[in-house]
Design a protein that fits this description.
The complex is a heterodimer of chains A (about 575) and B (about 300). The two termini of chain A are about 15 Å apart. Chain A has a single domain (about 40-555), classed as Up-down Bundle (Cytochrome C Oxidase, Chain A). In chain A, helix 4 (about 125-140) runs antiparallel to helix 5. Chain A has 16 helices and no strands. By secondary structure, chain A is mostly helical. By secondary structure, chain B is α+β, with helices and mostly antiparallel strands. Chain B has two domains: about 5-80 and about 95-120, no CATH class; about 135-300, Immunoglobulin-like (Sandwich), CATH 2.60.40.420. Chain B contains five helices and ten strands, in the order ααααββββββββββα. In chain B, helix 3 packs antiparallel against helix 4. Chain B is elongated. The termini of chain B are far apart. Classes of the chains: A mainly alpha (about 575), B alpha+beta (about 300). At the A-B interface, helix 3, helix 7, helix 8, helix 9 and helix 10 of A face helix 2, helix 3, helix 4 and strand 9 of B. The structure holds copper (II) ion. Copper (II) ion binds next to loops of chain B.
Chain lengths: ~575, ~300
Amino acid sequence: MAATAAPSTTRTELPALPQVLAHEVDPEPRGWRSWVMTTDHKRIGIMYLVTTFVFFLMGGVEALLIRLQLGAPENTLLSPQTYNALFTMHGTTMVFLFVVPIFAGFGNYFLPLMIGARDMAFPKLNALSYWLLLAGGLVFYASMFFSPPEAGWTMYPPLSAEDFSETGGVDAWIFLIHLTGLSSLVGAINFYATIANMRAPGMGWGRLPLFVWTLLVYAVLLILALPVVAAAVTMLLTDRHFGTNFFDQNQGGDPLLYQHLFWFFGHPEVYIMILPGFGIISEVLPVFSRKPIFGYKAIAAATAVIAFLSLIVWAHHMFTTPSPAIVLVFFMLSSFLIAIPTGVKVFNWIATLWRGTVEYRTPLLFACAFVAVFVAGGVTGVILAIFPVDWQLHDTYFVIAHFHYTLVGGAIFSIFAGIYYWFPKMTGRMLGEGLGKWSCAIMFVGFNITFAIQHTIGLEGMPRRIYEYQDLGNLGLYNLISTVGSFIFGLGILLTIINVVKSVKGGTTAGPDPWKGNTLEWFTTSPPPVNNFDSIPRIRSVEPMKDIRRQVERGTPAVHQPAEAAPEHSVVA
Amino acid sequence: MTIIPAALRTPARILVVVAALAAVLLLPQAAFADFFTPEDGGSPNADSIDTLYKIVFAMAMAVLAGVWIALAYSMIKFRARRGAVPAQIRGNTRLEIGWTVGAALILVVLSVVTFVMLDDIRNAPESDRTGVDLQRVGQPTGVPDTESVPPSGRSLLIQVRGKQYVWQYTHADDDENILNDPFSYEELVVPVDTTVTLEIKAQDVVHSWWIPELGGKMDAVPGHTNWTWFKIPGKHAGRTFRGQCAELCGRNHANMLAHVRAVTPEEYEAYIERKGREIEQANDEAARQRKRIESEESR
Ligand SMILES: [Cu+2]
């Protein structure tokens, strides 16, 4: 391929300018078959993003139904059976079909671009991970037409055992865990291999974009944690149908074994769902404050430390089970420790804004909303880590509020920051700023109305996963506030959907580098050609695009282009 | 500085201001409900958890406020303006070590506070003199090995059993026969001023025992025994404390309620005596029936 042609030979007046030469040599494949058969990481990435977003909307509708039911005390809108199925599907969908795979979607699209690679290391495996994900989602949602599972996304036996859940819903869930787990494993190996082997010349570990760092750690955590849950649900499956008794206390098994296995996976899973979000924030903040990220090494190191610690905190989900004191104390202290690297990240992000020139573009606003919300989830996390306090708060709406602050803060706000930040790269069009800002503001307000009050609902004594409650104290009022908030939150999300639909064809043209980004994905056209890059520059820092802009500025004294604008004129073919 | 007009420039900020106003309007509501803290008042362990929570909550709010203010300040103060030049700082080792150590110190303080409070929460105290006379209500001898029993080994032992979707309470007595032990469903009657030790088990799926005002919850896990305790002060005689199963246990999980009615020791003795008599009568009746059926069959 002509991709290696040195850019300096043809236009001597513009040395070191990036040029796209082989672009459009191969005709762009078209039609639905080009999507089904594709192994192009960008198309797979888009399929990931669209599919997971559809699942997000389904999970969101489930959440709104749950809130409708709880909007009034002793409501009879939903039957207990339907209600239990809804929260089981909501949790499962958001974790396994939305947050984890949407980061795989961003990773698919942007990992090769950010490290200057042509594609992922194993393009066919990459396609396989997408199709496994879709299959997992379809298998699970097919159970809706028969008998959806009702035992919660954690699926604790004996409730999920055959005696108490005889229908196939639990089996559909197990199948989903296997299929999406395989999908994530294959994807994780692919990410790892790509990052390890396909970085641009000069991109050492100290120059890896922070989003790629988090993807690397995300991949490692998936590889470490997923086999454990795969084992746990396989044991559940054989208990249910093939006569084993791993979790049957009457036959020498133990229901607590399942809880330990599940949470050994489940806690790393929490960080699997948050770390890539941290990565997005670490990319967005420096770009829009026009400053380098503060403490690059500390942020990268904190990511790795969080990942390690996340493997040794699992039993803080089990503080109310019969456990020896030493177990309670150990898991309290290990959970405390996670607050340190997390705090380091938050301080570094704020320090990145400090003395910058902060531009209030939508991705930046979502990133700041993320920091504000996530910190609230972080401090309630520390409160919950204190096991005697957890004895009061465990399994109540306080916990629901806590993990929605971390997951909606940590995942959804960062995902939306990513959508607004990278949409121009993926489509060549900008998302509308006005709609974007309204969406961010309404989501932020709606989110806080929905979940802040849930701390109090939990403190008042309302357990989670109950389909009705008596109007003791102010529970009815508080739940109504939460329900109203959830619809405001939904409205905010709807605005972004409208924005996407409007902008995908009608948005203003983005050009290759609309934000004056720092990383390599902005070095190519928007959307990038099939081969991504024709020439890969040598990487000299964590901000290769800044270097390129400076180089262009220095190399073209006669033209006197503003440094930031130069690549736009030169890269577009 | 023209912060106020600037603060109302974007829709985001208008909404933040509206939300803040709403929060201020809600606060009076909050003042008389236990808005920011767990339920307490029914037992010393619940009170200790409440105290611990308040300390931790104050620290957490201070940290949260600090971070929010720093974030908001950075966003507003360093907003891009004409002619402003971003400082190209890549880090500051001293500062970074400083806040790492700072975060660690906060956690050390938290750990110390927790360990100081822990004994009061975990370890059951002795019953008061005014509590029920355990001999007179026929308590079993033999002390289970748990912090939920006071050092003297003397507390009122209740067996709590979770099953879909009801709690069963058995007031074990000192004879071998378990069929004549007084028991009840949903409502547990206990004497005030007396340390009550709960032995929690499950018969089918996992449940979780929880009466918020009487302290933390404990899971009932099939195949395991869990323990907790409470001790209701005398002033609460006649009060009923409400709670419900806190671990998903099936479709009617929401209806698996638990009530604890506190009575005076005298009332409790009478209650146990009456329950015991009822059970004896029922057992006698069953024995008579069995005999009649047997004699009919042998005929
Ligand atoms: Cu239950």
